[in-house]
Structure formats: C-alpha cells, structure tokens
Amino acid sequence: MLDDASILFQIAGIGIIVAMIHTILKQMGKEEIAQFATLVGFIIVLIVVIDEISDLFQQIKSVFLFQG
C-alpha cells in the first residue's frame, strides 16, 4: 500500500514542477516552450502510469495462470 501512495506523490510532484515551469515560461513570453514543457511532463507521467499498469497486468496474469 505504501508503494501505491508513493506513485501518487510522484505524479503530483511532477505535476507541480511542470506547472511552475509552465507559469514561469509563460510569464517570460515563451508560450511555445511552456506548452512543450507541459507536453513533456504529460509524457513522463504517462510512461509512469503505463509501467504501473503493466506491472498490474503481470500480477493478475500470475494469479489466474498460477505462475510465479
């Protein structure tokens, strides 16, 4: 259960950092770079979520197919 909470905090931390970077870049007038930074942050979070879903499916597969 502790691992699940750490994933949520990791995603929230990435979101906060990306929001700060986006705000700073937007105030500097670099809106295109700000949007790119947001896209990169989204892709990083997506990779983390896909990795966790992959682990979940592996655990489900091992339970129902009785593999180790």
Shape: elongated
Span between termini? 21 Å
Which segments are poorly predicted (pLDDT under 50) over 5 or more consecutive residues? none
> Helical element count?
2
Portion of residues in helices?
over 70%
Q: Estimate the mean pLDDT confidence.
A: 90
SSE string, helix = H, strand = E?
HH
User: How many strand segments?
Assistant: 0
User: Radius of gyration from the CA trace?
Assistant: 17 Å
The assembly state of the depicted protein chains is: single chain
- Coarse structural class: mainly alpha
What amount of the residues lies in strands?
A: under 5%
Q: How would a textbook summarize the main sheet?
A: none
Write the layout of secondary structure elements.
Elements: H1 2-27, H2 31-64
Describe this structure in words.
This protein has helices spanning 2-27, 31-64. The chain has two helices and no strands. α1 packs antiparallel against α2. With 68 residues, it is mainly α. The radius of gyration is 17 Å and the shape is elongated. Helices cover 88% and strands 0% of the residues.
